[in-house]
Each structure stands twice: as structure tokens, then as C-alpha cells.
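TA notes, week 10

Several of you asked for a full example with nothing omitted. So below is the full record: C-alpha cells for the whole chain, then the designed sequence directly under it. When grading your own attempts, check the secondary structure regions first.
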């Protein structure tokens, strides 16, 4: 059971004034699907780059099974990183790129690759640089699902994909994961499409981890409380408020934590919050400070 650990990590870029990542402590366990969320510029890609040793920490370290990943071929061979950079020879046909990948990874899953090529209707005789943005992502997705690595990091994998192809991707990811469990770390802004798929959620805001829990735990402690302002304010007074919207005398207050051990007042409705709404609330710091 392998594990990636990020310990006391800080990152700033040489010419940047600010720290991009601040005192990050996180672990990514075996066989889980992590959603990595945060607003534009929060530091998600930087974190993924650090895990895959594309850049190095200013302080702290990233380890895989207690070994620093930096310049560590053994550790890095267990990590596959799909991102927006095109690492493939631009003028090669897709078929050749698949062959090159297969020659690097001994247990590369050619059967799955062929199945995915058909599902996505990818023409493997096309040169990579002639593909549309969506199909470039599809080539990378196929490779990411077929390489025999224990940790698959996907930075905005569905960039440019239409709704049908996004649906195929999610279904194939789940099927592939069920057959061959491994760890996925997926960064995306389309939270509502993957919230049912992720087992764990990590959210970064202002370079810090602000949420790191299982999806089940988060769902079990995030609620919307709606009703007359005075009743809702009283019912939620000891809870951590993450969002608030009011319409006249009626208010919806989003909270995190255990609900009070008392009867919900008549006229007040308590519902669970969707992950998407929770993340947006957490991004919206003003909302969190409203109460
Ligand atoms: N090589 C670099 N040099 C200087 N600053 C950088 C570099 N790479 C990233 N940054 C800065 O680090 C911050 C975080 O960027 P990062 O790409 O990690 O965010 P992100 O959460 O992935 O954003 P997005 O969702 O928009 O892709 C940004 O302010 C960005 O400008």
C-alpha cells in the first residue's frame, strides 16, 4: 500500500514575491480517487508539479513510501502526470505516440487503449499537432488510463472535451478503477461532474489546504438551513457558517459541523449541501465571514 506524503511544504517562485503554497501537509493514500479543487491560481497545478518532481519545494518535501521523490526514478516510475503541456513529439501520429508509450511502460494496457480509441472515436492516424484541443486531451487521457502506475495525476483532464466525451471519460475512469484500483488525483473546475466519483476532497485556497476529508464525511457535516431569519440564526448559532443568502425575512445559511442536538424549529428546513456548492462557499470568503 503506497502513500504519497507532503510534509511542511512551502513553494515560492524565484521572481515571485508571494508564497504560492504555504505549509502544506497532505497525504494521498492507495486506491483512492481524490478531487483537488480551488479557484484559478490557488496553486493546484503547482502542487501537482511538485508531486511529479516537475518543480522542487522551497521548503519541505514530497515523499512516496517515505522516500523523497526528487530525482528518484524508482518513486517517479509509480507516478504518471497528465497536464496541459504537450510532451509528445508534435509531428508524430497518435499511433506512434501510443507505441512509444508502450515501449516505456512494460505493462501498458493495449487492450484498454484500443477500447478507448473506439469509444472516443479517435483517429490514430492523425498527427498529434493536427488534433483539436479536445482530442489532444483524449490522447492524454487514454495514456493516463493505460499506464501501469500506482498514482495517476490528472490536471484538468476534460479540458476541451464535449459533454459526450466527458461522460465517456468518467465512466471509463470508474470502470478502469474498479478493475484495477489505484490512486487518482484529479484537478478540475467542473466539480458537479465528478463529485459522485471522488472518495476524497482536497481544497486549496490562498496556497493553503482548507479542506481535506473523505467525501462521505464532508457530505455528513455540510448542511443548508433555510427559513425565517431569527429561527435559522438561532438554530445555527454554534455552527461554522460557510455561506449565507437572504431574501427578505428568509435566509439560507450553509454550515459545517454536527447539527444541534435539538428539534429543527417548525418552518426551518435542513438539507445536505452538494459538494459543488460547498466548494463555491469556501471559495467565497466574504460569504464565510457574513454571519
Ligand atoms: N513558473 C512560475 N513562475 C512564477 N509563478 C508561477 C509559476 N507557476 C505558477 N505560478 C503562479 O503560482 C500561482 C498558482 O498557479 P497554479 O497554476 O498552481 O494555480 P492553479 O490552482 O492550478 O490555477 P488554475 O485553476 O487557473 O489552473 C499563480 O499565481 C501563478 O501565477
Amino acid at each position: 500500500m503506497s502513500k504519497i506524503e507532503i510534509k511542511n511544504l512551502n513553494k515560492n517562485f524565484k521572481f515571485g514575491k508571494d508564497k504560492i503554497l504555504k505549509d502544506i501537509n497532505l497525504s494521498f493514500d492507495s486506491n483512492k480517487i481524490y478531487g483537488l479543487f480551488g479557484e484559478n491560481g490557488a496553486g493546484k497545478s503547482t502542487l501537482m508539479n511538485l508531486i511529479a518532481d516537475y518543480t522542487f519545494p522551497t521548503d519541505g518535501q514530497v515523499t512516496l513510501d517515505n522516500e523523497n521523490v526528487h530525482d528518484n526514478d524508482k518513486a517517479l516510475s509509480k507516478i504518471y502526470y497528465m497536464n496541459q503541456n504537450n510532451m509528445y513529439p508534435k509531428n508524430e501520429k497518435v499511433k506512434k505516440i501510443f507505441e512509444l508509450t508502450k515501449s516505456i511502460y512494460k505493462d501498458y494496457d493495449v487492450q484498454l487503449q484500443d477500447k478507448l480509441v473506439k469509444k472516443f472515436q479517435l483517429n490514430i492516424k492523425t498527427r498529434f499537432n493536427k488534433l483539436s484541443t479536445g482530442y489532444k486531451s483524449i490522447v492524454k487521457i487514454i495514456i493516463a488510463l493505460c499506464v501501469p502506475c500506482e498514482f495517476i495525476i490528472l490536471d484538468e483532464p476534460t479540458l476541451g472535451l464535449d459533454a459526450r466525451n466527458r461522460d465517456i471519460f468518467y465512466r471509463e475512469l470508474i470502470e478502469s478503477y474498479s478493475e484495477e484500483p489505484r490512486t487518482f488525483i484529479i484537478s478540475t473546475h467542473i466539480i458537479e461532474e465528478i463529485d459522485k466519483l471522488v472518495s476524497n476532497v482536497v481544497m486549496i485556497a490562498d496556497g493553503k489546504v482548507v479542506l481535506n476529508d473523505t467525501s462521505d464525511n464532508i457530505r455528513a457535516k455540510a448542511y443548508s438551513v433555510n427559513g425565517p431569519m431569527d429561527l435559522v440564526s438561532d438554530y445555527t448559532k454554534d455552527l461554522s457558517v460557510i455561506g449565507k443568502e437572504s431574501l427578505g425575512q428568509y435566509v439560507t445559511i450553509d454550515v459545517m459541523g454536527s447539527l444541534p442536538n435539538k428539534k429543527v424549529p417548525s418552518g426551518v428546513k435542513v438539507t445536505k449541501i452538494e459538494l459543488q456548492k460547498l466548494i463555491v462557499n469556501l471559495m467565497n470568503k466574504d460569504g464565510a465571514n457574513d454571519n
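Residues 13, 16, 20, 38, 40-46 surround adenosine-5'-triphosphate (CB under 6 Å). Use that as a sanity check on your answer.
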